[in-house]
UniProtKB/TrEMBL annotation:
Keyword Acetylation: no
Entry keyword set: Cell membrane, Membrane, Transmembrane, Transmembrane helix, Transport
The name this protein goes by in its record: Glycine betaine transporter OpuD
Pfam families named among the record's database cross-references: BCCT (PF02028)
Superkingdom field: Bacteria
Family: Belongs to the BCCT transporter (TC 2.A.15) family.
Membrane-spanning ranges: 7-26, 46-65, 85-106, 141-159, 187-208, 228-246, 258-285, 313-331, 343-368, 400-429, 441-460, 466-486
This protein's record includes keyword Transport: yes
Organism phylogeny: Bacteria, Pseudomonadati, Pseudomonadota, Gammaproteobacteria, Pseudomonadales
Single GO cellular component term: plasma membrane
Length: 537
């Protein structure tokens, strides 16, 4: 198979370069047009984001829990490529690691000072409870179901059916050979563009928080200029890492991520308000499960409130824009897993970690605000990215812990961007598992350029806006992807059942033939004559 760049590479590259040039020359106009498109999308299709994401969660659970769950993503009996803990670490790090660090305090405190739908007294106990509930919801099962669906579709096609690891290949069961033509190329181009914007959002969030952390630890200034310099520095590191093979590059950085994240989590849990954290986590889990359906489908047609658009739809869109990247990366590292193991591993374990993470950091911030008079809510209102580091001021060893948190954020950014370069290289190199170095470098530079333009255009607002817009077409594509995957699984299940039926029939035929041969041998042995009727009577 030729690995030379084709239509997908050139078209995606040109589209993104045009975006970078336009954004660099007219950043204010870019933000204005993006906001107008966002208003149109959320007004007319906001409901679709909610229904689609909820449907993806139900679909993944149903597939894993049924007979399809026993199908292995690879040859029957094939062992997984990575150990379970390493596998989970790579999923978590390449998934939403940067977002978890950024929003762990910022989201609960944002809901605390401005409760959803104005349904509670700001900065009161009910607002605190609602803040934790919605934080778990936004980082819970729905978010990871997006990744699980795309990852499952690609892993099944790549390792079970031995087809190239492209998004378009997931549609072969419904589109047939048309995936090799313009339709398939368009699907892959859409996946590339969506991935670049999704990862650029994460790069931007990470850079903004690194800037805040440097301000808290070293007193550096906060602004776009500083953020662009930080982005350039991070880019140099992850571009160098992208030159290493996947097994020796991302794997070890992911392991370091998990160890450092676990250490910081344990430190804050035990050095912070431990009893409050455990109680708040228990309460939030109960609230989450009790209100999951209502939160999943809530809209505000009677009040015109835009809270759902600013929070829930943004999160779902961000996850959807990440789905081709994270899903493809998870598929790449999941060879040998069963569908059941894959789905519950991708949806279950990261959500459990997210719950503990948000309860520890967000719960600590709420405790300090409610019972120790900390002005963390004001810090969030002033600069959302500073919330985490403001919380660390109320723990011992602030400077050391703040420095380690900075390292963690940088590692998460490097892992996410590095993983994305591999996936984008795969998408634009006909699905090869180890794309060429020049391809990985090219897409790394493109990601950094897009992130830089978004920071210039409006910082956090621009990042959120572009995420929602980029996600919409791919969300529609994912609906048809689920249909195509189900058709493929049904075809395999029918083949398995047919094979089992033929095997049973063949076995019964052999048994019958053996019985017949046995009877013939018994009748032909000398000295054995059939008894005459009535002789022994």
């Amino acid at each position: 198979m030729s690995h030379r760049p084709g239509w997908v590479f050139y078209c995606s590259f040109v589209l993104l370069v045009l975006f970078v040039v336009a954004g660099g020359l007219m950043p204010a106009e870019l933000l204005r047009y993006a906001n107008e498109a966002l208003d149109f999308t959320t007004l007319h299709f906001g409901w679709l984001y909610l229904f689609a994401t909820s449907g993806f969660l139900v679909f993944c659970i149903a597939v894993a829990a049924g007979n399809y769950g026993k199908i292995r993503l690879g040859a029957d009996g094939e062992a997984p490529e990575f150990s379970y803990l390493t596998w989970l670490g790579m999923i978590f790090s390449a998934g939403m690691g940067v977002g978890l660090v950024f929003w762990a305090v910022a989201e609960p405190m944002s809901h605390f000072v401005a409760p959803p739908f104005d349904s509670a007294e700001p900065r009161g106990p009910q607002a605190a409870s609602m803040a934790m509930r919605y934080s778990l919801f936004h980082w819970g099962f729905h978010q990871w179901a997006n990744f699980a669906l795309v990852g499952l579709a690609i892993a099944y096609v790549r390792f079970r059916l031995q087809r190239p690891g492209l998004i378009s290949e997931a549609f072969r069961s419904t589109l047939g050979n048309r995936v090799d033509s313009g339709i398939g190329h368009s699907i892959n181009i859409l996946a590339v563009v969506s991935t670049v914007f999704g990862v650029a959002t994460t790069l931007g969030l990470g850079v903004i928080q690194i800037n805040s952390g440097l301000g808290a630890v070293a007193g550096t200034a906060f602004g776009v200029t500083q953020q662009l310099f930080i982005l350039a520095g991070v880019a140099v590191v992850f571009l160098l890492c992208s030159l290493a093979p996947l097994e020796s590059g991302i794997r070890y950085v992911s392991d370091a991520n998990m160890l450092l994240a676990a250490g910081l989590l344990v430190f804050v849990f035990f050095m912070g308000p431990t009893d409050f954290i455990t109680a708040a986590m228990t309460n939030a889990i109960g609230d989450y499960f009790a209100n999951m359906v209502g939160m999943s489908l809530v809209m505000t047609p009677y009040t015109g409130d835009d809270w759902v658009e600013r929070w829930t739809i943004f999160y779902w869109a961000w996850g959807l824009s990440w789905a081709p990247f994270v899903g493809s990366f998870i598929a790449r590292i999941s060879r040998g897993r069963t569908i059941r193991e894959f789905v519950f591993g991708v949806i279950g374990m990261p959500v459990l970690l997210s719950i503990v993470w948000f309860s520890t950091f967000g719960g600590s911030a709420l405790y300090f605000e409610l019972f120790e008079g900390a002005a963390l809510g004001d810090a969030v209102l002033a600069e959302m990215s500073s919330a985490l580091f403001a919380t660390l001021n109320y723990l011992p060893g602030t400077t050391i812990i703040g420095g380690l948190m900075l390292v963690l954020i940088v590692l998460f950014v490097i892992t996410s961007a590095n993983s994305a370069t591999f996936v984008l290289g795969m998408f634009t190199s006909k699905g090869v598992l180890n794309p060429k170095r020049w391809s990985r470098l090219t897409w790394g530079i493109v990601q950094v350029s897009v992130a830089g333009v978004l920071l210039l255009s409006g910082g956090l607002e621009a990042l959120q806006t572009i995420s929602i817009l980029a996600a919409f077409p791919f969300m529609v594509l994912m609906i048809f992807m689920a249909v195509a995957l189900l058709k493929s699984l049904r075809n395999e299940q029918r083949q398995i059942e047919l094979h089992e039926a033929m095997t049973r029939e063949r076995l019964l035929r052999l048994l019958a033939e053996n019985d017949h041969l046995g009877d013939e041998r018994a009748g032909s042995e000398p000295g054995l004559k059939p008894e005459e009727p009535g002789k022994n009577e």
